[in-house]
């Protein structure tokens, strides 16, 4: 099983994303079942945010994890830029903890950069960690320039992860950001590792190269795309899985080892970047 290490914790390289979950009462029970199916199968990481459904995702997660031992779950949430100040962050975090019905987060991420000075945000994150309200902190939607600036800020090097959009057809971060993170031992949390589907312009599921590799491994295109993301060093993939069937299907990707030939086939269809690209954000 592929693994990733975040804040000295060794975790399965597949997590449970909850973006756009918790919004519809009609599918709430199925979403809870999906999260529990993942935990029952040995997954540990659940990724949410105060922004997701204005807290409804966090409330859904709280209900889903109620029967489980909190210590066995690695819980991630995020603070919005407008709340990432010394005056507002504690209030934001305490609201998230209340919705999640827990007294700490394993990882708290600065969701994306806003108007608050980075040094102020980092100081507050570090203060909350020192208090024990969060076990560690990181960032999200940070590009290479942002990470380099973060490293120059007092306590900035205590950042344990960066969460960015990353999948086979969106490889821009491979040019400079991913090499920098590997050099500085900062794991990547890859959101939307399966893209955003055909309606959002994603072509991966029907691409001939993906289908060819999937057929060889007797796997689905989804499983191959997840396996590709997780085969990168120290990358955690967090696809949204709002049904138990999809989530259990995703689990098979943890055991798929793509060969150099497979990687070459996929590379020809979706080449890695040869120049710096703007950071992709959904």
At the first level of CATH, what is the class?
Alpha Beta
CATH superfamily heading: NADP-dependent oxidoreductase domain
Question: How many DSSP H or I helices?
Answer: 10
Major sheet, described briefly?
A: 8 strands, parallel
CATH architecture: Alpha-Beta Barrel
H/E series, N to C?
EEEHEHEHEHEHEHEHHEHH
Rg, rounded, reads 18 Å
Query: How much of the polypeptide forms β-strand, as a percent range?
Result: 5-15%
In spatial order, strands of the major sheet run: 3-4-5-6-7-8-9-10
Uncertain segments of ≥5 residues (pLDDT<50)?
A: none
CATH T-level fold name = TIM Barrel
N/C terminus separation:
29 Å
| Mean pLDDT over the full residue set | 96
Number of domains: 1
**Structural class designation:** alpha/beta
Structure, described:
The chain is of the alpha/beta class and 282 residues long. The chain has a single domain, classed as TIM Barrel. 36% of the residues lie in helices and 13% in strands. The chain has 10 helices and 10 strands. The chain has an 8-stranded parallel sheet. The chain has a two-stranded antiparallel ribbon with strand order 1-2. Helix 1 packs parallel to helix 9 and helix 7 packs across helix 8.
């Amino acid at each position: 099983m592929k693994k990733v290490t975040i804040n000295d914790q060794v975790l399965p390289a597949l997590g449970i994303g909850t973006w756009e979950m918790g919004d519809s009462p009609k599918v709430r029970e199925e979403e809870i079942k999906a999260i529990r199916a993942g935990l029952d199968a040995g997954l540990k990481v659940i990724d949410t945010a105060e922004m997701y459904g204005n807290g409804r995702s966090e409330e859904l997660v709280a209900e889903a994890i109620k029967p489980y031992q909190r210590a066995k779950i690695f819980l991630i949430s995020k603070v919005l830029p407008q709340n990432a100040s010394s005056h507002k962050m504690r209030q934001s975090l305490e609201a998230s903890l209340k919705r999640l019905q827990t007294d700490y987060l394993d990882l708290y991420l600065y969701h994306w950069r806003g108007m608050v000075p980075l040094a102020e945000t980092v100081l507050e994150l570090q203060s909350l960690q020192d208090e024990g309200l969060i076990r560690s902190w990181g960032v999200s939607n940070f590009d290479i320039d942002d990470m380099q600036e973060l490293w120059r800020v007092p306590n900035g090097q205590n950042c344990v992860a960066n969460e960015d959009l990353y999948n086979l057809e969106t490889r821009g971060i491979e040019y400079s950001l991913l090499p920098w993170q590997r050099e500085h031992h900062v794991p990547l949390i890859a959101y939307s590792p399966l893209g955003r589907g055909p309606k959002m312009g994603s072509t991966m599921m029907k691409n001939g190269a993906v289908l060819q590799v999937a057929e060889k491994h007797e796997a689905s295109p989804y499983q191959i795309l997840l396996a590709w993301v997780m085969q990168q060093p120290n990358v955690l993939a967090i696809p949204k899985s709002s049904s138990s069937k999809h989530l259990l299907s995703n689990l098979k990707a943890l055991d798929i080892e793509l060969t150099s030939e497979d990687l070459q086939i996929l590379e020809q269809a979706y080449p890695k970047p040869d120049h710096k690209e703007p950071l992709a954000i959904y």
